Amino acid sequence: MTSYSTSLQHFHVPQRLRSRCRRRPSREAVGELAANSTAQEAEAAGRLETRVEEREGGYWVLKEKFRAGINLQEKVKLEKDPMTLVYEDGIRKLAATPLEEMEASKSGKDDIDVRLKWLGLFHRRKHQYGRFMMRLKLPNGVTTSEQTRYLASVIQSYGEDGCADITTRQNWQIRGVQLTDVPSILDGLTAVGLTSLQSGMDNVRNPVGNPLAGIDPFEIVDTRPYASLLSSFVTANSKGNLSLTNLPRKWNVCVVGSHDLYEHPHINDLAYMPAEKYGRFGFNLLVGGFFSPKRCAEAVPLDAWIPADDVIPLCKAVLEAYRDLGSRGNRQKTRMMWLINELGIETFRTEVENRMPKGNLERASPGELVMKQWERRDYLGVHPQKQLGFSFVGLHVPVGRVQAVDMFELARIADAYGSGELRLTVEQNILIPNVENSRLSALLEEPLLKKRFSPGPSILMKGLVACTGSQFCGQAIIETKARALWVTEEVERRVAVAQPVRMHWTGCPNSCGQVQVADIGFMGCLTRNADGKVCEGVDVYLGGRIGSDSHLGELYKKGVPCDELVPVVVEILVEKFGAVRKVREEDHEALPCDAKYLYKK
Questions:
Q1: Where's the Nitrite/sulphite reductase 4Fe-4S domain (predicted)?
Q2: Quick one: CA torsion of 319, 323, 328, 330, rounded to 10 degrees?
């Protein structure tokens, strides 16, 4: 049999059909083919027409012809651009207006519940009416003792309503904020080199990098400069970048600098993967990773490589392609991967290439620098830095919740033992870098490390992550943080686990707790208990992976009542992770100390 290459064999025509194929097509058939081709080309050309345009003042607006079927949030943006709160001093006017007066009009309600998110302010209408969560920008998760003290002073002023959370994007969120205080808080943030601008809604979220950047003996590249450049570009140096504030949906970016892939590139809209080409350092690119209630997708290769100098031009090109072409209809279908799927990866790549400064985008490099066979390291505890005589100390922060007193102590410790710097991680923990080895013993004896933020937590606690949950978040279906601690402590009383198991909790299908990347994930839902009564429950996910063999977990069991979850987790750990059951004298049903502390101000 004649052999053919795969590509040619696909188009090979059997001998018995060749005579038919040689026949001249009829005039009618030619006309029909031409008409179909023309229609397809016209359709394709129309789909690639830019859907937004720049208006007076630099604001980008959806064109009139593309406004049919748009979602409610797009309508709010059309009625009044959210960035007017920044550029036209709208935030000071809002802060001086009584909440009741703003609630009297649709525009006022939209300001409170939607447009303020462009300033990083999220109204807690459902659970803390009149209070706001403020999300910051903290590129690469790097912060200072001065910044930490300032944030602590803000939440301390709100008493029991104030606290802070470390997010799954190496970031701070502070809670309890009152609108009347926002102008002065924003001024205070500026004074310490922080901003909350463009940290919510249809904007670029906090750029993630290697938490060990600059101190890791095995790092590939220091990601801090790139993450900082990205943040500065996206926000125009914290002044607001109007060309990027009207995206179809939120957008995540990370720069990978470690073999450990601490940055979780497979769940970002754009991930920079270190690679060399022609002896030059640069990045291959992954695009499209995301979570949503309707769909979760891993990032896919763009088949493109850029030199390190093109990090910003590439980011700009990808964002503009998404801004110009992305759908603005159903909010569940407006993340960038939906656009990539609609156009096809090659067409999307072409659109990005067309927006590059020189209209050129090189193909991916085979010289990837991330080692495939690499065992992910645990950064909690004491570890030597590349700087001789110095170490970093990783502290476990139970489910990422901190109080003002904790933040003041963290700032003091960073000054006393390190260089005044703190690092946040996507697992909601904290690193103290640049500690002289001679000071390690004293640091480890600090009460904060002994009682609250241990460098050596239990094997299940160290991998525990939880979103905000219904305590503060209006979208959450269940309470997460205290329950995650309680379930974990109860499970630890019942089984002995010999290997790390990462357990993530999220209060709703939005998956802010990233349950799909966990070994065991718990997604909040409503279900029925044994008595048939509606109660808080979880859908259980298994098999998520991070690192070089990363992939998303799959649904294992639906609708488990939270009160019945402990034995289910025990069974999973025994069957799937080799845990051994303990012999117990009695069950302990009291709320654990750490969980109680979540509500203690």
A1: 201-358, 464-573
A2: -10
Q: 388: which 2 tokens?
A: 């001789």
CA-to-CA distance for 105 and 118, rounded, in angstroms? 20
Q: How far is CA 235 from CA 83, 245, 255, 296, 302, in A?
A: 12, 9, 17, 27, 25
Tell me the C-alpha distance between 61 and 78, whole Å: 7
Q: Which of 507, 521, 537, 553 is flagged as catalytic?
A: 507
CB 69 within 8 A of CB 331: no
Catalytic (active site) residue 512: yes
- For every residue of 347-367, DSSP letters joined together read HHHHHHHHTSTTS--BPPPSE
Tell me whether residue 451 is one of the annotated catalytic residues.
Answer: no
Separation between Cα atoms, residue 200 and residue 122, nearest integer Å:
8
Please tell me which residue in 135, 224, 481, 483 is annotated as part of the active site. Answer: 135
- In the set 115, 124, 249, 462, the catalytic residue is 249
Whole-structure pTM value: 0.87
First vs last C-alpha separation in the chain: 79
pLDDT for 23 equals 35
- Reference 343, options 326, 368, 359, 331; nearest CA is 326
Give the separation between CA 524 and CA 559, rounded to whole angstroms: 9
- Among residues 512, 521, 544, 553, the one annotated as catalytic is 512
- 473 catalytic, yes or no? no
Q: Is 135 part of the annotated catalytic residue set?
A: yes
What pLDDT, on a 0 to 100 scale, did the predictor assign at position 31? 44
β-partners of residue 542 are 520, 554
**pLDDT above 90 for 50:** yes
How far is 397 from 469, CA to CA, in rounded Å? 17
Distance between CA atoms of residues 430 and 504, nearest Å: 17
pLDDT of 25? 41
Determine phi and psi for 478, rounding to 5 degrees. Answer: -130, 165
Residue 152: what pLDDT? 98
pLDDT tens digits, one per residue of 461-503: 998 988 988 787 778 888 998 999 999 999 999 999 999 999 9
Please choose, from the candidates 88, 125, 89, 92, the residue with its C-alpha nearest in 3D space to the C-alpha of residue 110.
125
User: How far is 582 from 493, CA to CA, in rounded Å?
Assistant: 7
> Angle at the Cα of 468 (from 466 to 471), degrees rounded to 5?
125
Strand order in the sheet with 381-384: 142-144, 421-424, 430-436, 390-395, 381-384
Give me Rg for the CA atoms of the chain. Answer: 26
Write down the catalytic residue from 513, 521, 537, 544: 513
Q: Taking Cα atoms as reference points, which of 352, 361, 414, 392 lies closest to residue 149? A: 414
Unique residue bearing structure tokens 């993630």: 208
